[in-house]
Amino acid sequence: MVKMDQFLRAGVASTALLGLVACGGDKTAEVAQTPAADGLECVTIPEGLYVFENGKFSSTVSPQQPQAPEQVTRASAGWVGDVENAFSAAGYTWLGFVARENIGVVTGVAPDEDTKRRALEAATTAIMADPTGGTEINLVVDGISVAEGEPGPGVSVAALARGGISQDACQQALNETMEGQKIQFPTNRGDISPVSMGLLDAVAGISMLCDDFNVEIGSHTDSRGSDEYNLVLSQKRADAVKHYLEEKGVSTEQLTSVGYGESVPLDTADNAEAWGRNSRTEFKILRRP
């Protein structure tokens, strides 16, 4: 048994304790006090940094408290490291860069939307100005999140680029990218709204990394309008997405566009909420025949 009077000193004592079990126990817990036979106290103290004053131990720092880094730790080598250094030189020390094949993803967490916009513009300029990046990177994807806001559309593209490529990994990346998101179209029209282009850039990046598989673009409408009208509208929208992805560098042979109209609803109710759920674009990773 370790008695408290063995390591207390006059005044305030500060010490780092690594999972010390002072009462003979075998696990750490909340500070527990147990009377000893001679009137002294023994304690069980979990890992952490403590101050003793006024007859009590108190924790000064939580050992599990995450500390947000002020900037990205630069571990990249070669031209990718040069690009990240260019980000820092431009004042964006919190930006990172992931490159695989001809896809580049700018990563990091911006304090607000305006800073994100300016950082992405500066990052894209730096990538294209690099002798290697300017020739090898065909698509720059926005993977910048906003603090206490939306994650960047390319967050899952960066994760896929860092890991292994498989059918499941590709489908998961697409599912995560589209989670809570929609490709926006004006009402009763087949042209893509500009607000969805960053999202589709992420889909293009995933498709290009997953070029051993086919990608089905499935467009769905709500139940308003005739079956024939909705079939035509959904096909126009699926074709518009396919054309956009092709322009970004996805192989035509890899893509299939299918308009399902209103035939595969997620919600069979006839109200605005159901209409919003049912009008959607889905992406499926398929093995090649």
From TrEMBL:
Keywords: Cell outer membrane, Membrane. It is found in: Cell outer membrane. Residues 172-289 form the OmpA-like domain. PROSITE patterns: OMPA_2, PROKAR_LIPOPROTEIN. GO terms for cellular component: cell outer membrane. CDD domains: OmpA_C-like. Its main location: membrane. This is OmpA-like domain-containing protein.
